[in-house]
């Protein structure tokens, strides 16, 4: 293969090579470099410095891949480019045959100065926004209802606290209605699951999905405490190794840790982990740190049994399911009673927990904790164990801690008990139910959203309406209307805003980005 | 008589730490000194290396005591370097401050302070950065800050230039492309049998040239074994290459987190007799390893220049490399086979290279002389000198930037009519202000504080009180050899 011409041009003798390499040298043979030869063309543009990237460049041409001419700002100067280059080429050819076309190569000795910028090839491989998928308005709004739901349930919780704190609502009624709703939700859930287990195992493909949902949502069937706390560590749901769980949930309160350790057994047995299934002692040995180690041992044993039952109902399918589910319900009721009495016993301790702290600190703290809850909540709603950092457990822990410190402001044990139980229902169980309802049917999701918005609006209206004894419902109605308006505005406005912001999207890709290697024969020694 | 300058090279990265930037600075400084300039190097203190050191050729290195946080990058304090920097600059009567490497904090600070003190600044970029992740966004913003007021930027390849122009929003005309080079004398191909005796080849025979049909072809890989060096590709490709070509073997030098994958691959496929892993080697040993092979395989995923493939070609190896970053610009096509960064393509390209070598179609023995004529540090020094001439006004702006001097519309806003960037504080502030809505104001604040510190230092340590350092005797350039220099 003959060496390319560039090589021959680069003479070995120092004399010639020096003169060639020297930037001043072209002066002798060529006309003075005019700016038109080396500089971007559109100098007459209104921009102060056309050769710099201006902010407009980021979005003027939002249409994905841009043409090479980076510096033409749309007023036809791109067309100007070609004739001018041609003219220069003609001129230089007539004067000297030695001036070659600029090449984007480093090994060629070029007769151009080092800072020469070639119009035709500069940034020719630049791509802008090549992989952008535009958002659509209505799907965006639909997706953002998930956030709305969560915010509304947090608002409802706060409203209930304020009601209890101002002694306008009896704590018993709050927790009574809350528990009633939870019970209804559980029944609904049980019914859905029953339905699904009937038509689930018939054919293969839906079964996989159904199994997934079983695994994800089994705890709520089992009820309150551990149902809700299932959300504490979604990363642990699919882990076969239960010992990973205590670390996922920070032991902010003993209250949280207690039911949390309980749920290892079922989650382990879900995965068919026979050892942990058969040795409940091994499982609950981790709960020693919790106050209720004794009681949780028994319950963990019971849970292991129920977990086995539910595992069999999930995997083995219909035949044994009736008996299994009855056993499971029994286990659920048992654990509900356990949680109930645990909370009852804990309430006096919680009541005096923050007596030495001033109320201002408590309000600020609970505000931040609830903000953490909202911002770190797992809106994705599918627990696939892919979380590196257990953000959702952070969220639930923050909410329960907020409820604990808020409850400690309340004067009586009954109030403390009610609020804590209610918070477990709202932050632990309800999100799980919401996710399941959304997967189940879009209609349930919309219904739930509307109910939540109305409830939150009504509650806020009544709380803000003051002690007006004879017209509490008027304030509530106003609240509902305002709540609906605000949520509609927020949903529509934020979605519209996000879509509007897309025009600023300016992803730049080019040859400088690290290439993505395509490796076909994935190494088989990986999967061990 | 060509003007000569007092140049300070500033970078966090310098010897004793090994690396590409380090040797670039050293080689460039040495060659600039050969051309009659005075060059000093300012870097931070390394373990056991503090104070002032002299290297070969009278190259003076200042090791500034500084707090190192991560991979020998100093802690960014923006201002704390100024007093010492001013002292060094005045003592050495520096005209031009030349910073290297975009991850070097010391270099960015030096550029800022040098502009405050009214010196010319040049920046050399050695690396490529993306635009997507948060770390790059931050780095790019800081780069924009320090390059807002730089006089000229040098990039090592055209891809690198495009990248830097986009990252720092520069006028492409104030960015020059000056490639790296190799010291060709240090990368001579294997030539005589005496050398074979000197370098023990172990049990292997020396590489056969010309190749017979059944001679073993040795493929050399020298790279740090990291993800972005394409070690995954390598791990996937090696078994397939060895399977397709019976008389081939691999020599892999280098270490890193991906070494374990390679070792596993070797054990899994029982290739211990055909893949030799040397571990990490020193830069001086690179040539000794290279001359044991016929083909150099470079599977990198990103590369600004890729000095190592030039070194390999200089050693007379046929180069197989991925077509990423600045690599396609570096070597002519008769020395290389390009592959897409895909496993299949890499295997195919290596197969093509092996077939070409077996057919004796590649004149690898000519590579050394060709590379020698393409890349030399003297050439780099001459081209860098032209940049210095351009920014200090020794060659006219029209000539340097290619202006049409009669057309006032062609004056760039970044440069004044003096032909060089103005030092007036208000002009500098204007340049920084354009960096962003918030960043612009923040940067302006930094510049103003820097200027106040400068005034304070002028009062507190007056220039007259600072000793002037006696210069090392300068070399004189033989003018007859440089007819073009003005």
What's this model, at a glance?
Chain A: Belongs to the PIGC family. The complex is a heterodimer of chains A (528) and B (486). Chain A has 528 residues and is mainly alpha-helical.
Write the layout of secondary structure elements.
The complex is a heterodimer of chains A (528) and B (486).
Chain A (H helix, E strand, L loop, with lengths): L4 H5 L4 H8 L4 H4 L5 H4 L38 H19 L31 E2 L8 H29 L5 H29 L4 H19 L1 H6 L15 H4 L5 H9 L1 H7 L3 H5 L1 H5 L8 H24 L4 H31 L7 H18 L14 H17 L5 H28 L1 H23 L7 H30 L6 E2 L19
Antiparallel strand pairs in A: 1-2
Chain B lengths: L5 E5 L9 H15 L3 E7 L6 E5 L3 E6 L3 E3 L2 E2 L7 H11 L3 E5 L4 H12 L3 E6 L8 H14 L4 E4 L2 H11 L6 E3 L15 H6 L18 E6 L8 H14 L3 E6 L5 H10 L6 E5 L6 H5 L4 E4 L8 H8 L3 E5 L4 H4 L5 E4 L3 H16 L8 H8 L2 H15 L5 H6 L22 H9 L3 H24 L26
Parallel strand pairs in B: 1-2, 1-7, 2-4, 7-8, 8-9, 9-10, 11-12, 11-14, 12-13, 14-15, 15-16
Antiparallel strand pairs in B: 3-4, 5-6
Helix pairs in contact in B: 1-14, 7-8, 7-12, 16-17
Keywords:
heterodimer, A: 528 residues, mainly alpha, two-stranded antiparallel ribbon, 21 helices, 2 strands, 61% helix, elongated, disordered N terminus, disordered C terminus, B: 486 residues, alpha/beta, 8-stranded mixed sheet, 6-stranded parallel sheet, 17 helices
Structural notes for this entry:
The complex is a heterodimer of chains A (528) and B (486). Helices cover 61% and strands 1% of the residues of chain A. Chain A is mostly helical. Chain A has a two-stranded antiparallel ribbon with strand order 1-2. In chain A, helix 6 runs antiparallel to helix 21 and helix 19 (413-440) runs antiparallel to helix 20 (442-464). Mean pLDDT of chain A is 65; it is low at 1-97, 201-319, 383-389 and 523-528. The longest helix of chain B has 24 residues, at 437-460. Chain B contains 17 helices and 16 strands. In chain B, the strands form 3 sheets. In chain B, strands 3-4-2-1-7-8-9-10 form an 8-stranded mixed sheet, sandwiched between helices. A 6-stranded parallel sheet of chain B has the order 13-12-11-14-15-16, with helices on both faces. A two-stranded antiparallel sheet of chain B has the order 5-6. Chain B is elongated, with a radius of gyration of 24 Å. Helix content of chain B is 39%, strand content 16%. Chain B has helices at 20-34, 82-92, 105-116, 134-147, 158-168, 193-198, 231-244, 259-268, 286-290, 307-314, 327-330, 343-358, 367-374, 377-391, 397-402, 425-433, 437-460, and strands spanning 6-10, 38-44, 51-55, 59-64, 68-70, 73-74, 96-100, 120-125, 152-155, 175-177, 217-222, 248-253, 275-279, 295-298, 318-322, 336-339. Classes of the chains: A mainly alpha (528), B alpha/beta (486). At the A-B interface, helix 2, helix 4 and strand 2 of A face helix 5, strand 10, helix 7, helix 8 and helix 13 of B. Chain B: GO terms for molecular function: phosphatidylinositol N-acetylglucosaminyltransferase activity. Chain B: One of its GO terms (cellular component) is glycosylphosphatidylinositol-N-acetylglucosaminyltransferase (GPI-GnT) complex. Chain B: Pathway: Glycolipid biosynthesis; glycosylphosphatidylinositol-anchor biosynthesis. Chain B: Keywords: Glycosyltransferase, GPI-anchor biosynthesis, Membrane, Transferase, Transmembrane, Transmembrane helix.
